[in-house]
Amino acid sequence: MTTLLPVAWRLARAGGTYRLAAQVGVNVLGGLLLALSLAVPQAVLSDGASTDELLTLVALLTIVLLPLAILLVASGRLSGATRDRRLAALRVLGLGPWRTRAVGATEAGLLAGAGALAGVGLAAAVAPLVDLAVHAAPERADWFVAPLRVTVAGSTAVVVGLVLLAGLASIAGTWRLTGNPLAQRATSTRRTPAPWGLAPFGAGAAIVAWGVLGLPGTIRMLYGGEVVLGVARVADIDESPIPVLVVLGAGLVLLTVGVVTLPGVLTAWVAGCLARSRSTAAVLAGRGVQTEPASVPRIVAGVAVVVLLATCAAGYLGALTGDATYQTERAQVAGGPVAVTVMPPDLPDTGGPAATAQPTVADLDSLRAVPEVLAALPDLIMARGPDGQRMSGLGWQPFVGTCAELRAVMVVDGCRDDTAARIVGRASDPPPTETIELATFDAAYDLVRTPVRLDGEPIRADDAATAARWGHPGVEVWTESLIPYGYFVPVSLPGVDTIPMAYASVVIEGGPATWQRVREGITARGFDMGEIDRDTFDEVELLRAQLLVGVAGIVGVAGLGIVITAIDRVRARRRTLARLVALGVPARTLLAAQAWQVLLPLAIAVLLAGGVGLAVVGAVAHSADLGVEVVSAGMPLLLAVVGIVVVLVPLLTLPAATTRLTPELLREE
């Protein structure tokens, strides 16, 4: 031990200031984020939280922190080839295999421990500030049920964990140095990645497939009451002994590790073909990959993680924004029409009509005078069509008003204020009938039925033009949910003009600011206006913001890893490039060889991670009955993230294909 620490410290100093600072800095970041992450469950979960909730949160945090884990491992292997040769030299000088591994592990643990201690100290200072920032906004006040605090036990676990991770990564990376140290000491030795990199990918694919198939082999109950043991759709499962989300999260973690390790193995296999080709640039690229197979794959590991997680995030974003209720409320918030109940102040908002004053036709005229009110309509308890079929909620509700009001809400043709008629030309037309029945309660709770004859020619609606008017062209579901009218009944018809109204409805436009102005105008006229439901919109927008912040964090951490490892590779490759320049290899050949070495693993990583991500999202969407269109809804996010990381790698690595020749670069260590 007396000689282990000095030798390990000399090994760390020999790596240079850049490597030492990068390793310590990355572990500071790791200590900060991991300490805060360990404090999150206690802050966000109540005392009565279930095991499923805890496991789901842990799976989510693990997925978010995966780029950090990749960054920590990659930083420990900075200048890995040079460091391995130095450790191999110790073996040549007579140091035993385990002593050599101990030197490397101690060196990595010293740097990781120093950074981790600084990181957890910083986390302890930052946690109260994060807690204050969360509680500063009322809409975020319920995020934390307890203060966010970093504990001593959590800090100790983080420091020990980072030291062990660095030590194990060092041992794994230098394991083969003990076999033939003279060969490992040489820069021209061919090094082939171990095929164990296939294992995480295969295990992750198997676990995800098991989850998508509904956990076959376990006993589950479906919503229909059926108990199943075999394959089932996730959307049909009511009760399961194992949380499906936890299973999918565990599979995604293993798949992420797989798309990190697999590109290196595949690139090494392809490099053999390049080394046997007739192109000088391809041969140089193939030999470069064979001698340093982990150099570029270490850079593109961050790209693979980002592409896979961004693809899954895009699918989740598509599932959130594809919800019909969210789309309806988003259209209303954006200024589309919304119907809201209006009542005298002495009537209850729920529980049925009360035997007190009710809105009258004169009251409707007063409501129409409020700016931004498109229509004021009797709020019917029910409306029945052919064979007593109830029309509420079918998109066939009667519009009891005037043609001017109908035209303010919909784009229609053929409306007349003296005859009732069907509204046709929509996604689903109401059935033809001669009579419909309007029903409501009077002040004495008696049901009043008012038959209405449909004498007029059908009114033709244009859904596409209606949606375009409100800024949502071509969305049929949107028009069906926001404008669910299938019949037009003039309010001036005999019998209709005296129909009792428990409540009234006004159709308004303009978004939340307009809603408030309308509320003030309606209150000034002696009425109360009901609340407009936007809970789903607010919840999805919150989840969307959190998702985008998470993606930004993932891209930031992965981008930092790409930059650090790319700079390290440029520094490590300078001597190799200098020798090739001294031998007279043209600059364009060096650039082409560098392009092969960089773009080949980059393409493999992007195609592999993107393909796996799309397959997982599509399979989960199909099993959960979400529809594969969830992928297209999040495509802008996916393309933006992939574009950033894919462009970053060539920008950082290809310019280093040429180097200025100096005597120092020709010196062999």
Automatic annotation (TrEMBL):
Every ABC3 transporter permease C-terminal domain range: 60-178
InterPro entries: ABC3_permease_C
Coiled-coil parts of chain: none
Listed transmembrane segments: 20-42, 54-76, 108-130, 150-175, 196-222, 242-275, 296-319, 547-567, 598-621, 633-657
Topology of this chain in the membrane: Multi-pass membrane protein
Protein localization: Cell membrane
Keywords of the record: Cell membrane, Membrane, Transmembrane, Transmembrane helix
Protein's UniProt name: ABC3 transporter permease C-terminal domain-containing protein
